[in-house]
């Protein structure tokens, strides 16, 4: 049997993606199917070759590091989900304070002032300078 | 040509555009100099900022970020001894030796001068050769476009030296993902999974922002170690003798840089090592190389920056992005309605010549801005990485939202970033993603049109230009072998 390395798990993830694409093929008319079908077949072939070939030694990052990165990625995800719920200003401020606390930035002037400066400067740059309407929030709305 | 040049001069020297050029250079140098950041990330993150700008101003801003980023990468190579990119390795070798002799200012002065010189001459080459190549590109029809797209995609093999299968995997899967949305000829929705937001396909720039920014943030978190201390910058000085005694070296290295830049994906690292090697062979004092040789720094930096202008020549005329920053640049051009090719030089002459002239102005600016920046670099390089990490996350999320003011793009960026991190971990190249997403739709459209043009597909080989591109495709497929030989030659010294 093949040892389940990180690379093989990564390939299995893409295997699922390819299967999901395959299930959609029947919904595509013949005239628009040939090109993606060719690519799908090539993707399957190359991923199978990569799966069965001998695996290279993988760089280890350690459980502690992996957990730190995973939690930070989750924090980013939550802040993005909150963007449309509590708006850009609040979600960015919460992310910045939580993120800097989590990444252990020394608590000083920089810790408290930097998130405010970054959030507001980006807000005014986008809304006033670039005419982009940033998310305002459906639960709480804070606009300036 | 002369009237277009005048148009370009007028465009590049308006106060507004000069400010965008300056802003781009400053941002680019900061992105290039900060550990973990890169020119590619800078261009990716700043594409959304360019949306509201006029196309000319937008291209100048991004060019400034690109050129400034390439130059900026050499500053930590000297001051910290960590080359930001493989292209800065020779500079790091010589620069660190000079720092140990207390000559950090002289080393940075050389880096700044050679970078500006190489970049400026490459922009002159861009100005002269791009319009000439555009005349050839006028003869391009669907069969040639198809071959150009295949040639661009064959660059995947160049970008995947050492892991060809992984490069192919990324290439095929990305081409497949590029088919999400409506098919180009009949307009049928494909792979939308019933989600109407996917009918328009995935937003390419969002994918690229995520791919080239978030993985670097996660990599930063892998180590708890604080930033390395930067050396103190001694007095920056540059004598006339330094310049006159290195004239031949400067010109030779710049030419190497431009030539390597024109070859898709050969990249600044090859140019830097190759010209360093040539400078050593031609030097009257080769024993000084590795011990703080200014000749070595000049050779590496002039070639490294010479690549920037060279890499835009095939991009503007044939839509072939040879490198990751060039691919993102192409994405930005398409968003601004500037489709590279022969018509670009006639339909958008004002914008293109503004870019070509502005590219030269940007490289002149690099000298002055770089000179000032180097004095402050010691302080900027020690910005806590926690701050850098959260800045990138905020820039990436707000930037991807601003593309269409759509949360779908933000989540696309986020997912691309997470996948990109695992791609880096398991040694999958990222650049083919940019090539696949940009060239995939072009390939499918050209393929379909070619099929309708000819009953017998093999008739396309009666067209001379198609055959020229077939030769290019074969050369690029065998490029990994050539590159290996070139590296061996450069590394042996």
Describe the structure.
Helices cover 69% and strands 0% of the residues of chain A. Chain A is mainly alpha-helical and 144 residues long. In chain A, helix 1 (6-24) runs antiparallel to helix 2 and helix 3 (63-102) packs across helix 4 (109-129). The longest helix of chain A has 40 residues, at 63-102. The mean pLDDT of chain A is 92. Chain B has 493 residues and is mainly alpha-helical. Chain B has one domain (2-491). Helices cover 72% and strands 1% of the residues of chain B. Chain B contains 22 helices and 2 strands. Chain B has helices at 2-12, 15-33, 39-46, 55-72, 74-79, 89-100, 104-137, 142-159, 164-177, 204-220, 240-244, 247-262, 267-282, 294-318, 324-335, 344-347, 349-380, 385-404, 407-425, 431-453, 464-477, 479-491; strands spanning 181-182, 189-190. In chain B, helix 7 packs across helix 12 (247-262), helix 7 packs parallel to helix 14 (294-318) and helix 13 (267-282) runs antiparallel to helix 14. The chains are: A mainly alpha (144), B mainly alpha (493). At the A-B interface, helix 1, helix 2, helix 3 and helix 4 of A face helix 9, helix 10, helix 18, helix 19 and helix 20 of B.
Strand content of chain A: under 5%
**Count of folded domains of chain B:** 1
Helix content of chain A: 55-70%
The helix tally of chain B amounts to 22
Residue stretches of chain B low in confidence (pLDDT < 50, at least 5 long) are none
In terms of per-residue confidence, which ranges of chain A show pLDDT below 50 for 5 or more consecutive residues? none
Silhouette of chain A? flat
Q: Calculate Rg of chain A over CA atoms.
A: 23 Å
Quaternary organization: heterodimer
User: Structural class, judged by helices and strands of chain B?
Assistant: mainly alpha
Element-level helix/strand string of chain A: HHHH
Q: Report the order of strands and helices of chain B.
A: HHHHHHHHHEEHHHHHHHHHHHHH
User: What's the total helix number of chain A?
Assistant: 4
Q: What is the number of E strands of chain B?
A: 2
């Amino acid at each position: 049997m093949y040892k389940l390395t990180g690379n093989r798990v990564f390939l299995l993830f893409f295997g699922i993606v390819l299967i999901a694409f395959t299930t959609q093929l029947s919904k595509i008319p013949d005239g628009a199917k040939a090109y993606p079908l060719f690519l799908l077949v090539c993707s399957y072939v190359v991923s199978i070759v990569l799966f069965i070939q001998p695996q290279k030694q993988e760089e280890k990052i350690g459980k502690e590091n992996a957990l730190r990165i995973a939690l930070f990625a989750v924090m980013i995800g939550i802040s993005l989900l909150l963007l449309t719920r509590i708006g850009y200003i609040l979600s960015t401020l919460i992310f910045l304070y939580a993120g800097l606390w989590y990444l252990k930035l020394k608590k000083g002037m920089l810790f408290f002032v930097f998130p405010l400066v970054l959030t507001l400067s980006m807000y005014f740059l986008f809304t006033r300078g670039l005419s982009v309407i940033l998310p305002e929030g459906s639960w709480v709305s804070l606009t300036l | 040509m002369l009237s277009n040049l005048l148009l370009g001069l007028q465009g590049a020297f308006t106060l507004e555009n000069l400010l965008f050029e300056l802003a781009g250079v400053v941002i680019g140098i900061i992105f290039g100099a900060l550990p973990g950041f890169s020119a590619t990330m800078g261009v990716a993150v700043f594409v959304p900022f360019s949306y509201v700008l006029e196309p000319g101003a937008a291209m100048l801003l991004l060019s400034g970020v690109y050129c400034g980023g390439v130059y900026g990468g050499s500053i930590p190579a000297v001051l910290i001894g960590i080359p930001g990119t493989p292209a800065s390795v020779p500079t790091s070798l010589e620069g660190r030796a000079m720092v140990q002799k207390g000559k950090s200012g002289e080393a940075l002065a050389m880096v700044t001068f050679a970078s500006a010189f190489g970049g400026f001459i490459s922009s002159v080459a861009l100005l002269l050769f791009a319009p000439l190549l555009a005349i050839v590109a006028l003869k391009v029809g669907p069969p040639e476009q198809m071959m150009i797209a295949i040639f661009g995609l064959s660059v995947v093999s160049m970008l995947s030296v050492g892991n060809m299968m992984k490069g192919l995997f990324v290439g095929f899967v990305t081409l497949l993902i590029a088919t999400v949305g409506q098919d180009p000829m009949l307009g049928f929705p494909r792979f939308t999974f019933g989600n109407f937001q996917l009918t328009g396909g995935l937003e390419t720039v969002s994918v690229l922002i995520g791919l080239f920014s978030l993985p670097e943030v996660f990599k930063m978190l892998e180590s708890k170690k604080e930033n390395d201390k930067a050396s103190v910058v001694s007095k920056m000085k540059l004598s006339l003798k330094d310049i006159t005694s290195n004239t031949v070296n400067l010109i030779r290295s710049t030419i190497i840089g431009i030539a390597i830049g024109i070859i898709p994906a050969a990249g600044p690292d090859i140019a830097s090592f190759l010209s360093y090697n040539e400078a050593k062979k031609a030097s009257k004092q080769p024993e000084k190389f590795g011990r703080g040789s200014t000749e070595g720094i000049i050779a590496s930096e002039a070639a490294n920056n010479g690549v920037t202008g060279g890499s835009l020549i095939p991009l503007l005329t044939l839509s072939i992005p040879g490198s990751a920053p060039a691919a993102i640049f192409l994405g930005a051009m398409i968003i601004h309605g500037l489709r590279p090719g022969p018509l670009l030089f006639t339909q958008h002459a004002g914008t293109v010549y503004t870019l070509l002239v502005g590219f030269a102005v940007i490289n002149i600016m690099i000298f002055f801005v770089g000179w000032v920046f180097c004095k402050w670099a010691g302080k900027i390089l020690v910005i806590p990485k926690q701050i850098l990490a959260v800045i990138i996350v905020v820039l990436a999320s707000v930037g991807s939202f601003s593309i269409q003011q759509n949360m779908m793009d933000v989540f696309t960026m986020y997912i691309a970033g997470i996948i990109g991190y695992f791609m880096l971990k398991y040694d999958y190249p990222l650049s083919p993603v940019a090539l696949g997403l940009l060239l995939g739709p072009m390939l499918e459209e050209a393929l379909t049109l070619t099929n309708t043009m000819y009953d017998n597909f093999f008739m396309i080989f009666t067209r001379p230009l198609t055959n020229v591109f077939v030769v290019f495709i074969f050369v690029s497929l065998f490029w990994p072998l050539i590159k290996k030989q070139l590296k061996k030659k450069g590394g042996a010294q």
